[in-house]
Amino acid sequence: MKWGLIAFAAAxxxxxxxxxxxxxxxxxxxxxxxxxxxxxxxxxxSADGKLLVSLGPTFGQWIPYQxxxxxxxxxxxxxxxxxxxxxxxxxxxxxxxxxxxxxxxxGTGRRLQGASTITQQLARNIFLTNSYSVGRKFxxxxxxxxxxxxxxxxxxxxxxxxxxxxxxxxxxxxxxxRAFFGHPGNTLSLGEATIVAGLVKAPSNxxxxxxxEAARGRADxxxxxxVENGFISATAAANVDPARISVxxxxxQNSVRYFTDWALPQLDTLIDETGEPIDVWTTLDTRMxxxxxxxxxxxxxxxxxxxxxxxxxxxxxxxxxxxxDYVSSLYxxxxxxxRQPGSAFKLFVYLAAxxxxxxxxxxxxxxxxxxxxxxxxxxxxxxxxP
Length: 386
Known about the structure:
Blueprint: H1 2-25, H2 29-32, E1 42-45, E2 51-55, H3 70-80, H4 92-104, H5 118-127, H6 134-150, H7 153-163, H8 173-180, H9 190-198, H10 203-206, H11 212-228, H12 234-238, H13 256-263, E3 278-281, H14 286-299, E4 308-311, E5 317-321, H15 346-355
Parallel strand pairs: 1-3
Antiparallel strand pairs: 1-2, 4-5
């Protein structure tokens, strides 16, 4: 028992030292709130300023803790970490469950899922990766304890709700609210908050734009958890019908992606910015693009593809269609396809002849010609001899 107590005391001392070192190396709150480590957002706009496509992560506005709807805060705590307000960053009850699970399943290869607190999830999202290992889990716990020592519970929850990934490229509740419901995150209703909170577990599976029924089913689970943990009454939960929550349809980004995929690689030659969000203004005319898309789909035979490029007099691309459907075929036939002109070039030859005064009945002797020292040759690089 004596040696056991000494070992326990030594372990506590080592833990305290590790947490202290981690806390001293943590960035400031303002640095953690920047979100530039999550990637660069690029918004591509048409000639009149309309948003064509938004690529990369979408952040929305940073919402301070006091402006986050109480329903959103409660829903997230209820479903992700019901003892968030009482634990020191790591949940002792969850730790005991992990230990019991590890003993019972030793050697089976199974691992426990979903035992991380909100603080641990925040530490993992900011500083670590999602790869599972005992070492990573231990570092996650140390960082979570350090975060709790340096920041308040309200600050940690604010960081979490403004940084966590909700699917569809949306980071933070404001971006998620705008993407799924079409309004800012500080006006989320109780029903909408349950849908957003339910996304953290599996954003792709519960995305309301991909599977609205799955999202609503998950919202029911969140509502029930809120009732069980005392965040709302059973009456308040009964007044929420997830089936009646209106979800904003996703913006159609089909044919315009042929144009944006062609245009965006040119950014590397124009700017060096790789961190801050940028707006890219293009020459595309949205009305002409819509008309071109409709024309290609209406006039291209079934089983075939079509392509179109509309250029202004100054060379500006006003419309570009690379195929009948971008989703089924990313190949841009307008910009990537290379074909020999063949007989299509005869149109320009005949037009030049007619403009120079020749008539359809004009005859020419088929013999080699020399034009200012240049003589046309066959594809075999040989000169035709009559």
